[in-house]
Amino acid sequence: MKKRISVIILTLCLLLSPVVSHAEKAGFHPDIYDGPVTFSQSLYEDGETADEPRVTFEYAPDEQKSPSPAPETGCRAVYLADPVSGKVFYEKNAHEKMYPASTTKILTALLVLENCDPEDIVTVSQRAIDLRPAGYQSANLRAGEKLSVYTLLQALLIPSANEAAYALAEHVSGSVEAFAALCNERASELGCENLHFVNPNGVHSEDHYCTAYDLYLIAKECRKYDVFNEITATQSFTVPATDIHPAADRKYTNTNELLLPSSKYYRSYCSGIKTGHTAAAGECLVSSSCKDNLNLICVVMGGKIYGRVNERFSDTVKLLDYVYDNYSYKKIAAGGKLIRQVNIDNAVSDTPVLDIILQTDITTVAPVGTGEDNVETEIALPGEFKAPIQKNQVLGRITYKVDGLNYSLNLVAGNEIIKKPYWLYNSLVSLAAALTLIIIVISVRRAKIKKARRAYALKRRQAR
Predict the structure, then answer these.
(1) What span, in angstroms and rounded, lies between the C-alpha atoms of 196 and 99?
(2) pTM for the structure as a whole
(3) Could you state, in order of their start, the residue ranges of all structural domains in the chain?
(4) I need a surface site. Which of 185, 219, 267, 410 has the fewest CB within 10 A?
(5) Residue 42, φ and ψ in degrees, nearest 5
(6) What average pLDDT does this structure show over 110-139?
(7) Of residues 32 and 137, which shows the higher confidence score?
(8) DSSP secondary structure string for all residues of 105-136
């Protein structure tokens, strides 16, 4: 009897025991992914669904490798990078103090765009005309002319008109001195490390300087403005006629030869940005380009001219060609890709397998020839999974490491996992428990009756 009751109780305990699926025992398919897996319960947020892809990015320059010998450059300072990822392809004295010359006007344009409407009207002052030193570039503007901010930006960035810089500075801040202070403040906000401006156009001063890296940061910010991109890509422009200068004869060609088909330095994929030159600064150029979805900003400073060779242009095209020949913008993983499959024990029988998939595409700058086989991948998943699981629910994270660029994004459920109907399960367990108790009670009563009958029979035999 005791043995029978023990068996019944053990059966009842088994029926009531919980069912859990652990990741280590969950039936992973090693042929899908055989890389390292980190288990952490904190990664798994029950019920959180990923409506929007969440990708985090880290640039690790120490993990970056040069695909081939980089070209030699004559300019004293160089900085070449992808403004989207921050990946640096080439740098030379990029953090040393240099004179920027007219590349100063990039920061002037940024402050104008941040503080003015392009359709605002500006009256060119006599002071703006008089401040331009002899020999510095001009658009032949006249005192008293009323011109739009947009037109003055064109004059500033295309022929590099210095009087346009003074007129815009006065319009924004009231004076050249106040505008210079605004330039220094904004540059500091952008992260510029060694910049100090005293004017809006780069007229030479020992106290007017920056680094190639500083100009990269400023140009990167400017590229967020469509007006800026439109103007800096323009090959030529004409100052419109005004009451003071009624003829539309002030036509100017862009000083950036990368944009001019007639120049030996022309590159169709270039879109700007600004040249600069003074005797102290040498030949300077901040350029932008895009080819096959790979964006670049290149800064060269302190170049020289040898005969018909201008180093600001020759170095730039050499550097741009180097990057486009050795790197490309490519997809290394597609959204929806199956990363893992897990068997979930407490799921209904027709949905026991959970597909863990990549949430979105991963596209990156990588050396030519890079494929999925030579991309390092790391997965972080929780220690256990339990139904129910919603489709697109966040399950973990995956990291792709590609030549110094590390991308992390969500791993999500590719399908819904339905939990076993525990209302039925619990009902059956309750019924089984009740039946078991009834059986135990009946068994105990029967045992007592048999015991009583044996005792009565024994007494009758003894009475005879």
Answers:
(1) 10
(2) 0.81
(3) 2-12+421-463, 77-303
(4) 185
(5) -65, -15
(6) 97
(7) 137
(8) HHHHHHHHHHH--TT-EEEPPHHHHHTSPTTS
